Amino acid sequence: MDRRTFLKGAAGVAGVTAAGIGASAPVAAQSTFDGWLDGVSNYDGVVDETGKSEVTVEVGAKGNNGNFAFGPAAVRVDPGAKVVWKWTGKGGSHNVVAEDGSFESKMTDSQGHTFSQTFDSKGVVKYACVPHKAMGMKGAVVVGDVEVGSSGGGSGASGSSEPSATGGSNASAGSGGSGLADTLTLGFGGALVVGLLGLPLAEIRNRRRE
């Protein structure tokens, strides 16, 4: 093998290795909740409420230029936890409606009124107050250890203080395995490069001996 042949071979291996890495690299995460909470003034991250069997979210909390917010705007709970929405009586009449239509409360401005849902399955649940949705009165419940940067799923919710629809698809946890694929790809490419480097070195040594 001469120098030109070796360089061509090394370049080919580098190209194959790079292509393999590109094919197995994970796709960059999309914006949080696919932009659902963009513009919600009181949203400053997902509040971790895991470990609790019941979590309360205020309806008519301060935000969005008045009392037009859910407080907190986004919570993370364990599967099987109950979320209770409690009306503050401020900001006029509000309701709580799932974006996928899986549940809906009545419209009221009564202080102390509650509406609840138990979330049994992992997923991302988006909801809003219909009359104030355009103002930013939106919220989200993250059930389990799903990534909020990926596209959301359905509710996986059951039960409420009022009649509601059930169903909706559930978002599963992010799939793994990409890290292992990258490691294998790098290892295979490295072995090929080392093999190609060994060929001309062995040839040089043999010539020196002669």
TrEMBL record:
InterPro entries given in the database record = Amicyanin/Pseudoazurin, BlueCu_1, Cupredoxin, Halocyanin, TAT_signal
Positions with biased composition (Low complexity) = 158-173
Positions of transmembrane segments? 184-202
* Entry's cofactor comment: Binds 1 copper ion per subunit.
Where does it live in the cell? Membrane; Periplasm
> Which residues of the sequence carry a binding annotation for Cu cation?
H94, C129, H132, M137
* GO terms under cellular component: membrane; periplasmic space
Write down the Gene3D superfamilies for this protein, in alphabetical order.
Cupredoxins - blue copper proteins
Names of required cofactors: Cu cation
Blue (type 1) copper domain location is: 58-143
Q: Which UniProt keywords apply?
A: Copper, Electron transport, Membrane, Metal-binding, Periplasm, Transmembrane, Transmembrane helix, Transport
Main subcellular location: membrane
Quick check: keyword NADP in the entry? no
Q: Which Pfam families match?
A: Copper-bind
Q: SUPFAM superfamilies given for it?
A: Cupredoxins
Show the GO MF annotations.
metal ion binding
Ranges for the region named Disordered are 151-176
Q: What PANTHER family does the database record attribute to this sequence?
A: PLASTOCYANIN MAJOR ISOFORM, CHLOROPLASTIC-RELATED (PTHR34192)
Indicate what this protein is called per its UniProt record.
Answer: Halocyanin domain-containing protein
Q: Which organism is it from?
A: Halorussus aquaticus
